[in-house]
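job 3f2a | input accepted
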Amino acid sequence: MRTRLTPRQQVVVAAGRPLPQLTDPLEVELRVSAFAGLYARDEEFWEGVVAHLREVPSRRSAALLTALGHLLPGRPGMWAREAALEQPRPRWDLGGLTFGECWVGDRSVDAGYLALLCGYAYGDERHAVVYMVDEISGSLTRHAFLTRQVDDALERLGQQVRLEPITPEAAHWLLSRSYDRFERRPGLGVSEDVHQTRLLVRRRIALALGQVGTNAGSTASTS
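job 3f2a | predicted structure (223 res):
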């Protein structure tokens, strides 16, 4: 007897339909982070989704399980990784993520925020996330802009703040504190981009801090 899905679970499973056709791992992360982030810590929700995908092998099931295995925290991510091993691997590889340069600029005196630019890459394809951390409101990340135009973003940010290099570990430790606050109080006012990229960012925090138990199965190195 197949696992019966709730309407919300059906929406998430249906959202995974395009994943097998994609070739860009960053696009996979963005899509899955956007539609799965709302339910990230709902174990009962993911228990049903993973059971259904395991019972209905397909390219979509394999792709969605693989992506969820990288992006979901805790036991749901572990369940997804185990189920993904039973199905063919997708065309893209989320395990190829590496870290690049990270920069920090402080405008807490006149503007009240800390700006972080963290670089990443899949192979030769670079990208970055620019984080705006509100120092006045307890170091809450208000914005998280993802861009593929890394050099342009760095130049633009450098025109607004004096940037200094920071290690990926230090940068993501700051982000971890900020996102912990957000997780405890999800009703705090943050922009939609923070919600949509939350799982993507949380994955990078876990990798940078060596929290392999949070997103085991992913690998990353500092370039």
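job 3f2a | The longest helix spans residues 168-184.
job 3f2a | closed
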